[in-house]
Amino acid sequence: MTFDWSVVWQHREALAVGTGTTILLTVVTMLIAVPCGIVVAVLRLYAWTPVRAVATAYVELFRNLPLILVVYWAFYVLPILTGLGMPPLATGLAALALNVTAYNAETFRAGINSIRRGQVEAAMALGMSRVQALRRVVVPQATRRILPVLASTWVSLFKDTSLVSVIAVTELAYVAMQIRAQSYRVLEMLTAMAAIYWLLGYPQAKLVDWIQRRFAVTE
Amino acid sequence: MNQLSPDPKREMGAGATIVRYHGVVKRYGTFEALSGVDLDVHAGEVVCLIGPSGSGKSTLLRCTNGLESIEGGEIEFEGAVLPKDERTLRAVRQRMGMVFQSFELFPHLTAQENVSEGPRTVLRMNVGDANRRASAMLAKVGLADKAANYPSALSGGQQQRVAIARALAMEPDVMLFDEPTSALDPETIGEVLNVMKALADEGMTMVVVTHEMSFARRVGDWVAVFDAGRIVEQGPPEQIFDAPTTDRTRDFLSHLGWTG
Question: Whole-prediction pTM value?
């Protein structure tokens, strides 16, 4: 068997664009899923009971469905529900955001629960409203405490973006698979893909380790 | 408002009634934590609540600013019954400073930020004014040099002094202290008590739940002895510590080894 690595170099531009899309998907998903996760967590903890039930149902549904199923579901069902034809990138983004928001909501809920009751009481004794106490005292502390978990979610998300390739979002995995299909250079393309994911993922994992040390909670 | 205490022992220096507890009842399920408590706190007074653990003194303090609701009786603050709705209650809480046994400083903020947080978020003060006030309050408790420190870098006594500064920054009409020295190392208790004493000397109205009998004796204007959810005796410290009129007071003080 002979290897022809030139195929990787030949398609470097497509691979670069795919990599860019992968990074874009990760960043935008997190930008949506962090604030939405906070909102869902707060609703689950403090909202009027029916709203709380809806938030809980959402989290338990999306946390326990395989992401690839959500991706397909978003592709086929979302256009019917919304009546809008969405481009694959937006569909993939929606699926990822739905999934990661559910995870982040659970993470934030655990973080908020870990803050002592006395902290809220101290804030309320100053005359703050419950919302102010949450915003100024509880959420900032909870965020620090769960930063390592969010960072791990980030690294998982970076790799999981590859699942949206099944609905033809032109991210790294999709691009690599396309080149593979056209060039029949299976091993070369899979290796190149692995190398790119690893080279980008490893520093992120190291960054997570650093964040875990840097933001260790001291009280 | 402006009612003087009917208690003749209390005429000296007793100003307007700031807080009035009238038949206060607090229940946790079937357990009655407070069974009809009557007590007046006048402007400029230091009222010390003493008694065994679980006798209801901290509960009464936590009912004062509505951190706990009451099931019976009334609490009046500056002549008005303590409101039940959150919005009005917030306005009342702004005028009551509270200091907790476990400090409850905000660990993600520096000492300075802890103190300026109330003025900024609640009083909507601009950053410059809030910072100036915070600096002044930290100086007042002797911690001007610790402004940039996070709570984790402060000793227990220093943390509690920052907590006092944080409460003072709201310029409250009354300060509520919930066992402020109980979580402290013996060597740092003194610095906190000194700050409290200075505050009392300035004329701050204070309600202090404490196990520091010498503080109650020295600084208190009025002492209420709690037992099983009731005040069993109240009076000036000379009466409580030197000539207690009830067996419960005598028992409690002798358990502490108080010799007068």
Answer: 0.82
